[in-house]
Specification:
By secondary structure, the protein is an all-alpha fold. The protein contains five helices and no strands.
């Protein structure tokens, strides 16, 4: 389970990075004054190039999403049961849980449970938290 979780964290980081790169490429070419007075692109070659380059990053992100073995709710339940002390943030009974996880009991009680959802919701996840289990 720890390996699957670490792989999913690495995949999430990579996907976030690739999507960020794609957005960075698209932002300058598709915002602001990019059209002539007639409502057409001033330099359509620049938009085309930005789209092609962004698409490379998005395809890499999609590929990583497809090949990653993502943890399931069952995996998260197993991880929580492995912490008899309740000392890690993965456990709903943890005293060190972040405010967001305390509100929901654990990061995995959020709708559509899973690490990417917990991260998107602003739950701070310290990678070393699951290394002890």
């Amino acid at each position: 389970m720890k390996r699957k979780l670490k792989d999913a964290i690495a995949a999430t980081d990579l996907v976030q990075d690739m999507v960020g790169k794609a957005l960075d490429l698209l932002q300058p070419g598709f915002s602001g004054r990019i059209v002539k007075g007639y409502g057409v692109y001033d330099a359509p070659a620049a938009q085309r190039a930005a789209l092609r380059e962004a698409l490379k990053h998005l395809n890499e992100a999609i590929q990583r999403l497809d090949v990653t073995s993502w943890p399931t709710n069952v995996d998260y339940d197993r991880l929580e049961r492995r912490c008899p002390s309740g000392s890690c943030m993965w456990c709903p009974r943890s005293q060190s849980a972040s405010p967001s996880s305390q509100q929901f009991g654990s990061p995995f009680d959020l709708p559509m449970a899973g690490l990417p959802v917990a991260l998107a919701a602003g739950v701070y996840v310290e990678r070393s938290q699951f290394d002890d289990h």
